[in-house]
From TrEMBL:
Xref: PANTHER family: PHOSPHATIDYLINOSITOL 4,5-BISPHOSPHATE 3-KINASE CATALYTIC SUBUNIT GAMMA ISOFORM, PHOSPHATIDYLINOSITOL KINASE
Domain PI3K/PI4K catalytic stretches: 800-881
Annotated metabolic or biological route of this protein: Phospholipid metabolism; phosphatidylinositol phosphate biosynthesis
Name of the protein in question: PK3CG kinase
Occurrences of domain PIK helical (ranges): 544-726
One term under GO cellular component: phosphatidylinositol 3-kinase complex, class IB
Amino acid sequence: MELGDYEQPVVMREENKRRRRRMKPHCTSSNWSSMELIPIEFILPTSNKHTKLPEIVLLEIAGNCTVEQMKAQIWMRAIEMSQSTDFYHAFTPDQFILQYQKKGQWYEIYDKHQLLQTLDCILYWKVLQKKVGKIYVVQKQNPSEEVQEFQRQLNDLIGYDVTDVSNVHDDELEFTRRRLVTPRMIEVACRDPKLYAMHPWTTSKPLPEYLLKKITNNNIFIIIHRGMTSQKIKVSIDDTPDRILHSFFTKMAKKKSLMDIPEDHSELDFVLRICGRDEYITGETPIKDFHWIRQCLKNGEEIHLVLDHPPDPKEDEVQKEEWPLVDDCTGVTGYHEQLTIDGKDHERVFTISLWDCNRKFRVKVIGIDIPVLPRNTDLTVFVEANIQHGQQLLSQRRTSSKPFTEEVLWNIWLEFDIKIKDLPKGALLNLQIYCGKAQGLSTKTNLPSHESSNSDSKCKTQLLYYVNLLLIDHRFLLRSGEYVLHMWKIPGKGEEQGSINADKLTSATNPDKENSMAISIVLDKYCHPIALPKHRIMSDPQGDRTRAEMPNQLRKQLEEIIATDPLNPLSPEDKELLWHFRYESIKHPKAYPKLLSSVKWGQQEIVAKTYQLLAKKEVWDQSTLDVGLTMQLLDCNFSDENVRAMAVQKLESLEDDDVLHYLLQLVQAVKFEPYHDSALARFLLKRGLRNKRIGHFLFWFLRSEIAQSMHYQQRFAVILEAYLRGCGKAMLHDFMKQVQVIELLHKVTMEIKSVSAEKYDVTSQVIAQLRHKLEKLQSSKLPESFRVPYDPGLRAGALVIEKCKVMASKKKPLWLEFKCADPTALSNETIGIIFKHGDDLRQDMLILQILRIMESIWEAESLDLCLLPYGCISTGNKIGM
């Protein structure tokens, strides 16, 4: 049976949205007993030879059975009863997928490790009071040539092949790609096509006092151009663009021919656009709140707008999704009482609760292997193993020291002083290789951290390599079995340090397998998957008691702790006080980062109490948004998904203009997420798909990180792919041209640097060579026009070659001048671009961003410090403009 011809609905009806909201709580709870048998009708891919109808199998499946086990049961029954037995002998269950219908959409049951009772379809059928649900068994289809070609285009734009799984030890990359389809489709379906096409750049901040003084009687003059004619009109700064258009057409009712306006056209057929820019003045926002209008007022310039036809929203259509949707319950585990083995027939247990595992966690270090030894062979080496959550060290062990050879074997178990049941989601097993001079080899193993540091103090040690492994995977399952992990090298003196503190938290392994250090480890294996249960929010009687028992002296001490600078570290006593009086602390929004950093994340009971606490965060929810405070919860100190999601939820109220202000930091904060799919990743995806300007900068910020940050390539690539699949054809076409220009200019820059060596001066011959190369580019490969990456409102056209030169600087940046591609530009001014290779322009971007934020703070106080921060963007590995 084929299901490939179904249509994916583009727009969700209003009643469907309402029903979706009502059903949401059912995704987190289930009334089914874990041992209950659930009847399901499976529609097989084979047909009855007599009736020609699809064959059907009715099975009763245990609620705690996994999807993989359910598929095996379907296959066994199909072999027994189907008229096409040979078909089921020829194929395996892995070559088929399970699908169900919900509100006219097809969903795939994607996670093979998920328990049946936690599936969204089971909960959905229960709400509909269906006694027997239907699941379709569908053969996997190979992607069409069109789909493969589109994927190749996306990979070129991303700068990374997201389909390459050669450097992953699980399916998190593919899992996240599938999970992000649903939020992407919802955002694309819900966005306003006209507003998205024109992406007006506005602000809701009050007009600064110094700008109001430049305005007479609340009115300003604007000049509207159409063809070769123009008309100057007076408007109120409180008028909206739509009202201005209406007034203009009323005034020009009998003079349409003068402005080359057809008689049958009205204001509904036109829109106002800034002369020379691909930037629109449209919508229901007062004209005083458009950035360009404020910029003109600030600089004392005339406001020139062109009467133009609106862009066609069809240009923003997205490629049809080739995947069925997966619901947000995918990857969800059950509650402890559903997973626990207590009181159950062990023959009918398929998944075990992590909280039933009362033994200590351990790891077996087999050994390390390095292709090239350090020059100094008189060295010893040992492995330090840490379990950490964010920056919080939960437990530490180390091996004995051994001579540093090409292959060092230990073959020993390291047992940690943390129980398996206490491992939190997001916990990392951090493995580090240290070396030191050989001074009598240590034979101690399993030393606690303080003893390790004391023993190492006798001889200096140096950290050489590190790698991390998430102990609870993206599906809430405990890792088990053997792993060979390729490690990251610590940069040496004189080497590029990059963002080393963020890099040391990555769960990715080194893709350069041939030249990197490899460590072989073994984790305990179990007869069944071990799943971390969901937390139930229960009452906290101890917390209720302490609320009423706080003396005034301690209250004052608590307030002083809350008021301390975020950069000042808290003492253990401070943390103890914050936690003991946690119900008092959550009344103060500023206390949240300090309080949550006081949580002992390596104790399951305390984590449960923390979630009980966060269920009563009304003060936080109702407080005014403080971006700096919220960003603290997204830094490297917090790995808990619920804490980070709480911070992201607070950021939902950010306006587009503020998202642009903080986008650089938000992209960097993605590095501190423990998993690829996160609330922050979804927030960035949603805001980028909602506004083209945000989407433009999100593209370049992500692409720049993919090119420069090997440690987080996969994570940024999967987010960027999700964005590109929803941004629309017009944006894709623009990005392709920008990437093409960057690659061509990069090639020219490298050629010029090779002939001008390290000299600071630039000879006339070098400039002549540059112009010759640019002429060749112009006549063959360079696009006719492209958006300027650091200013998407500008379209650059042909190069003005006689004005281009090589700048007298060590990095030999190119000074390039382009004509403006917009024919409505009022002057012949060129667009000047400095194209540079050799410096990390992310640092420049950060400084300029700080200046812009400071400028907005000063403007709020009506101070004009006449700053002119220039545009700057990193477009690749030490490349930018």
